[in-house]
Amino acid sequence: MNAKIFIAGSGGIGQAAGLILAQYNHFPCTIIFGDISENANKLAIDFVREGATHEVDVESVLMPMDGSTPEMDAILKKCDIILDCLPGNQAPRMAGLARQHQCHYANLTEYVQETKDIIEISKDADTAFVLQTGLAPGFINVLAHRLYEEFTEEFGVKIVNSMHMKVGAISKNAPSPHYYAFTWSPIGVATEYMKDAEIVRNFKKMKVPALSGLERIIIDGDEYEDNFTSGGAADFPDAFAGKVKDLDYKTLRYPGHYQWVKNSLSTITNSENRIKALENIMLENIPSVEDDIVVVYASVEGKDNNNRLRRKERSYKVFPGYVGKKRLRAIQLTTAAPLCEVAHMLLQHKWKGTILQSQLSTLDFLNGPFVTGVYGKYGK
Do 315 and 343 fall into the same domain? Predict the structure, then answer.
């Protein structure tokens, strides 16, 4: 079977997903890029064709700003999966098109309200809607879930004290005063810094303001600071209700960055759109770079059946790497590979309706061919 995969969004993550699917060829597929820009579509097609070491089947269609077009509808009717790499505010639109044309659907967005909207859209659907399946949310959640499974099985308990998930997409170098450089969407960074985070404290789910939980942590000998940001916990505050006393997701940065953000926020007055205002401040002061690093850390801690405190943890540091003949940034590798893994899983299983991160088979995902291509075999 030759699967038809529609990639909505021909930017950096969409290009990476297309190249990873084409180059590794874990299942035969035709890739169709969709974007509002003809030039972006052309760049994406060229990126995949030039990057792959063998002939690939790739095409594109121009997308409207809203809704669909007859040409796009005709293509979607023949597609098996929509991989949504568009900005998060477009996710309900693309999910609606997937429902209309009976395609499977998978997305990356950490946006909370849009995710709730898609859960409604996908109710009783005959195809599957896998939500929040990139890096964070996505890989980090499945990793933490696996640690919980190992902890409870090994130590003979059902309840743990804590589950902590931390991810940082950072630059190799980070000069003062902001100690940061953009490696992915500036609007995405501003959004996660401004919207409330969902956490669990003392078994109770709650919302806390973003950037209200500053702490320091050492991972593999390197010091970082972390803070609450929105969306990265996925559905875990609900899925682990009664099982984990304290649960949270935090974004890792180099020490000093969050103080700069706090100072910048203090200069925003009477703005109707504080997210856009923060994005503009950051764009004026923070450059974008290609040499990035993705740091991933998850831990589960609690007492074993002998009342001894234990912790299981796992960390990764991912650098840019080659797929075929193209060098991908770390954020591209770590975000696109989980999305491609879910596409692979969708073609193998007869899933229907909403599939949340807590519902994915942890070992099937972590030891799948696309994820192991970036993170290596789990457990090794």
Answer: no
pLDDT band at 380 (very low <50, low <70, confident <90, very high): low
127: helix, coil or strand? coil
Q: What does the buried/exposed string (b/e) look like for 98-134 if buried means 16 or more CB atoms within 10 Å of the residue's CB? A: bbebebbbbbbbbbbebbebbbebbeebebbbbbbbb
Residue 287 lies in a domain: yes
- DSSP assignment letter at 80: S
What is the H or E stretch that residue 237 is in? Answer: helix 236-239
pLDDT digits (tens, 9 = 90+) for 144-202: 999 999 999 999 999 999 999 999 999 999 999 999 999 888 988 999 999 999 999 99
Quickly list DSSP for 310-334.
EEEEEEEEE--EEETTEEEPHHHHH
pTM over 0.85: yes
Q: Which among 353, 377, 362 is positioned nearest to 120, based on CA atoms? A: 353
380 domain residue, yes or no: no
* Beta strands 222-228; 215-219: pairing state: antiparallel
Alpha helix locations (H) across 77-185?
91-101, 112-121, 139-155
CATH number, domain of 84, equals 3.40.50.720
Are 323 and 334 found together in one domain?
A: no
- Single out the residue in 307, 327, 347 at which a domain terminates: 327
For 304-340, the pLDDT digits (tens) are 999 999 999 999 999 999 999 999 999 999 999 999 9
Alpha carbons 292 and 48: distance in angstroms, whole number: 21
Q: What residue ranges in the chain does DSSP mark as E strands?
A: 3-8, 29-35, 58-62, 81-84, 104-107, 128-130, 160-171, 197-201, 204-208, 215-219, 222-228, 244-253, 292-303, 309-318, 321-323, 326-328, 353-355
Evaluate whether residue 152 is within a structural domain.
Answer: yes
Cβ-contact 168, 295 below 8 angstroms: yes
- In this predicted model, what pLDDT tens digit does every residue of 53-95 receive, in sequence order? 999 999 999 999 999 999 999 999 999 999 999 998 999 999 9
Q: Which domain, by its residues, includes 182?
A: 139-327
Q: Give the whole-angstrom CA distance, residue 62 versus residue 76.
A: 12
